[in-house]
TrEMBL record:
Keywords: Manganese, Metal-binding, NAD, Oxidoreductase. Residues 5-344 form the Isopropylmalate dehydrogenase-like domain. Its cofactor is Mg(2+); Mn(2+). Belongs to the isocitrate and isopropylmalate dehydrogenases family. The keyword Metal-binding applies. Transmembrane segments: none annotated. This is D-malate dehydrogenase (decarboxylating). It catalyses: (R)-malate + NAD(+) = pyruvate + CO2 + NADH. It comes from Reichenbachiella carrageenanivorans. Its EC number is 1.1.1.83.
Length: 348
């Protein structure tokens, strides 16, 4: 039986409810599919910041390095300023551990009504570049006075950064329906994003068996709503991927349904699995948060670890759960967070 070392970081808000729910499902699946998890809890996050003045201890990253993966909820509390990069747990882990792939799948859950009128099923993955681009947090605010103030952020795209995410997307497409749509806005961001386009096209030429097209972010956003079935692998930058994956959550029916992986494909560092949504302080502490995005994140973690049968088994159990009408409040149901986890376990 393979044993995996998993760092568990609930973070803040609903993380304290959905992470334990997700973990229970992963542990139950381990008994059935023959793996075990050796877990250790870490209290990093905005709650930690309120006590210690930082989001994690100095040796926080060093400690996480020893694990096979990180199972994470979300960080953030009202009243804790999350605009200072030094405080941002998520940003630090993603960049330090070279988790340059943010893998965010979007699909129709059976039994869940999408807000889209069309009933054509969709099933695609947003591959978001996760370490550079618009989120490098380099810039400044010049505030000589109210009138002459100015804010500057710099986007950085490197050949290495674009090539590696592009190769990941094209290789992923080979295992799926063999289509990559890359999304930029190079007609207006004419320096940074036309460079992105150029490098993507060079990589695309190395995958003649994969269809490749390009969309601008405005058109892609509209297409997510009007014809999401045209997508297979959506390859995009950090900022656009952030926005598109919330939209992906919305067309599934709720942000609470979206799972994600921050992946270091080379496995030089642990990868981190977290839902697409935030810590939802507005509904925290009530046992009403939807745990399915967290559970799906756990499924992506199992896939990364090579436990494919267990991953498929949990997703089938999730489908039986939603088909059976066990739905949380965000989906119009009455099931509580822990009840949904128990229903998934019963359906395993
Ligand atoms: P972040 O900046 O961390 O992404 P955010 O400001 O985008 O956070 P979220 O915490 O994602 O905000 O919450 C957005 C809305 O979605 C809130 O109304 C929240 O209650 C709802 N929401 C988020 N996650 C869930 C969930 N798992 N179940 C139910 N509702 C959720
Ligand atoms: Mg958000």
């Amino acid at each position: 039986m393979t044993n995996y070392k998993i760092a568990v970081i609930p973070g803040d808000g609903i993380g304290h409810e959905i992470v334990p729910a997700g973990l229970e499902v992963l542990l139950a699946a381990g008994k059935k599919y023959g793996y075990s998890l050796d877990t250790e809890n870490f209290s990093y996050g905005a709650g930690y910041y309120l006590k210690h003045g930082k989001f994690m201890p100095e040796d926080g990253l060093e400690k996480l390095k020893a694990f096979d993966a990180v199972f994470f909820g979300s960080v953030g509390l009202p009243g804790v300023d999350d605009t200072l990069p030094a405080k941002d747990y998520t940003f630090k882990v993603r960049t330090s551990f070279q988790q340059y792939v943010n893998y965010r799948p979007v699909r129709v859950y059976p039994g869940v009504t999408s807000p889209l009128r069309s009933t054509t099923p969709f099933d695609f993955v947003v591959v978001r570049e996760n370490t550079e681009g618009e989120f490098v947090q380099i810039g400044n605010q010049y505030l000589p006075d109210e009138e002459n103030g100015m804010g500057v952020d710099t986007s950085i795209f490197t050949r290495k950064g674009i090539e590696r995410i592009a190769h990941y997307a094209f290789q992923l497409a080979r295992k799926r329906r063999k289509k990559v749509t890359h999304v930029t806005k190079s007609n207006t961001l004419i320096n940074s994003l036309s460079y992105w386009d150029r490098v993507i096209k060079e990589v695309a030429a190395q995958y003649p068996d994969v269809a490749h097209d390009q969309m601008y972010i405005d058109n892609a956003s509209a297409s997510f709503v009007l014809k999401p079935e045209v997508f297979d692998v959506v390859l995009t930058t950090n900022l656009f991927g952030d926005i598109l994956s919330d939209l992906g959550g919305a067309i599934m029916g709720s942000l609470g349904l979206g799972g994600a992986g921050n992946i270091n494909p080379e496995k030089d560092f642990p990868s981190m699995f977290e839902p697409i949504h935030g810590s939802a302080p507005d509904i925290a502490g009530q046992n009403i948060a939807n745990p399915l995005g967290q559970i799906w994140s756990g499924v992506l973690m199992l896939e990364h670890l090579g436990e494919h049968e267990a991953a498929a088994g949990i997703m089938a159990a999730v489908d039986r759960t939603t088909t059976g009408g066990v739905l949380s409040a965000d989906l119009g149901g009455t099931a509580k967070t822990d009840e949904i986890a128990q229903a998934v376990i019963a359906n395993l």
